[in-house]
Design brief:
Order of helices and strands: EEHEHEHHEEHEHEH
Number of helices: 7
Mean pLDDT: 97
Radius of gyration: 17 Å
Protein name: Alpha/beta hydrolase
Organism: Blautia faecis
Keywords: Hydrolase
Low-confidence stretches: none
Oligomer: single chain
GO molecular function: hydrolase activity
Largest sheet: 6 strands, parallel
Strand content: 15-25%
InterPro entries: AB_hydrolase_fold (IPR029058)
Shape: globular
Length: about 200
Amino acid sequence: MDKAVIYIHGKGGNAEEAIHYKPLFSNCDVIGLDYIAQFPWEAKEEFPLLFNSIYRNYKTVEVIANSIGAYFAINALSNQQIEKAYFISPVVDMERLIADMMIWANVTEDELKEKKEIQTTFGETLSWDYLCYARENPIIWEIPTHILYGEKDNLTAYGTIFEFVQRTNSTLSIMKNGEHWFHTDEQMKFLDEWIIKSSK
């Protein structure tokens, strides 16, 4: 095979999820990125090394990235030789997401700055370092990208996705009633059809 597709999972996911995409790319090797990074600054160290260990065996590489995996990819792989990217429910504005979570948790910026980390009732830990990193490392992404977005995504507002699409000249497909996490039979069928269409 001359071509590889690298799958980058989201939070709580794993590299084994790449198996789902193998039938959709029958002429490529589909490889799950088995990473341990929990934060974007860790991904920035880890991802290029993992990417290059795969890329050196192929002529071209494409990337599929899910949710926070897409944010990590944008943050860590923007300078790599990626032919095309497919982002599923991507987090494209981490500063905005953290700000939204602070509102949901009723936490002010001064409180977060003072405490550094605050545990929320919805299972996320707010981090001052993470907020600062997101502010200090604005996104630059020039790789041809197709984006799949669920109409009812509870993490990323449509306006945020639309702004990213405009800025990066990406294509956008929206699943009516789709959620942030694509997992039902109907959602996965939509996802598969979107990938087949976008990969042509």
